[in-house]
Amino acid sequence: LVGSSTDEEAARRDALEKQEREFHEFVRQQIICLIIFISLYLLSYWMISLFKSKSESDSLYAGDEDYFVYRISAWICSASLAISIGSVALLPFSVLSSELLHRYPDNYYLQWMSWSLINSLWNYVFALSNLSLFVLLPFSYFFIESQGFSKNKNGIMHRVYETLAVCALLIVVILCLVDIVLALISSSVSLITITSVNLPLIYSFVSFAGVMLLLLSTPIGFAKIFTLVGEMTMVGVFPAVLFRYQDVYKNGTSLLMVLINTLKLVFGYRSLPVYAQYMEVHTRHSLGLVGVVIESIIIMYVMATSLIGFYSVPFIRTLRPHRARTSLTVIIINCSIVLVLSSALPVLANTIGITSFDLLGAYSSLKWLNNFKLVLMYNMLFAAATTVCVFSQVTIPVRKQVVRR
């Protein structure tokens, strides 16, 4: 009896220690996520303050009510931009963290880093991206444009009620549209089952739209950067050749990764991104830390080129932010665009084979990623568009000389 009670006490003590350890790990993860979000928020607020105009409609001269309205909208834009920056840095951080955890599992300075922290970051980015895109950013836009239901426009709560009503109508419209599209695609879904539309399904459409925007903007950005580097390095022969070589190397590396990924998909050496949730996660990079650094640089380079290419499109140039001359409405639109592009970046990087790190969280359950023909077609279109845009920019001087002669 004494021995059995001692064993039970030891088992109870071990269970309590395990629960205490899990609790402390959970609290530590939340604190780390909060510190990361606060840091990104401060950076985003500083960036928005650089671009935001100091017009009379956004100052104290318009009254306390408008002052609070514009400040709340600016805070929402800062939060959404922080989430966008987190989405861009999510995949490089995950790849680097997984490699460090594999190489140095018992390192004292890496005890704060864990697999559960990486999964928590992916889940937070997914949830906050949806919250910002479907709730916060529309609220900030309609909040600025609102006047209130009552004729007495004094008081900020009248504008809050009107904004909430318009946002509710917008959410209903989005749910109905997605339900109609789903009913057209799948015959097993009824038009009246709005509750069957879940958040990952809606985000599948958004991510697909973001990936298609990246397909349009990234090749244009490659060509634009190639042209800018050529124009900036005309002062000397050797610097020009050096910078041109570096730019061609980056573009060629990205294009080569896409071509290799296409061949792997065709010959069955690589599975679709959606099947990562059913298999063992492959997180160890074959080239070690050097490969992780190269992947991270290429991912950041692709995001930068996509933004440059997107804002180089003729009918979108008017939305390009200018320092101290951008209205808050244009800032909200730009934050929405950047959020869509940055949220689709992990999907793009995994789809075209820039990284072998599997998508985590709800990203791995996106509906369109299980379509082999669609993924293969996207890789082929991306490679073809990049080749055509870069080749077109390279041959522009030759074509101009031919036309002149």
Which sequence of SSEs, written as H and E, runs from N to C?
HHHHHHHHHH
Structural class: mainly alpha
* Helical content (DSSP H or I, runs of 4+): over 70%
**Total number of helical segments?**
10
Distance between the termini: 105 Å
**How many strands in all?**
0
Radius of gyration: 25 Å
Major sheet summary line: none
Task: Return residue spans where pLDDT drops below 50 for at least 5 consecutive residues.
Answer: 56-61, 240-245, 264-269, 274-282
Rounded mean pLDDT score: 76
Number of domains: 1
Assembly status: single chain
Question: What percentage of the residues does DSSP assign to strands (E)?
Answer: under 5%
Shape: globular
Structure at a glance:
The protein has 405 residues and is mainly alpha-helical. It has helices at 2-51, 64-103, 115-145, 156-185, 199-232, 237-267, 288-310, 328-351, 372-394, 396-404.
Throw out a few tags for this protein.
transmembrane helix, 0% strand, mainly alpha, Serpentine receptor class gamma, 405 residues
Plain-language structure description:
Residues 56-61, 240-245, 264-269 and 274-282 have low confidence and may be disordered. The chain has 10 helices and no strands. It is 73% helix and 0% strand. The protein has 405 residues and is mainly alpha-helical. Helix 2 runs antiparallel to helix 7 (288-310), helix 5 packs across helix 7 (288-310) and helix 5 packs parallel to helix 9. It has one domain (2-404).
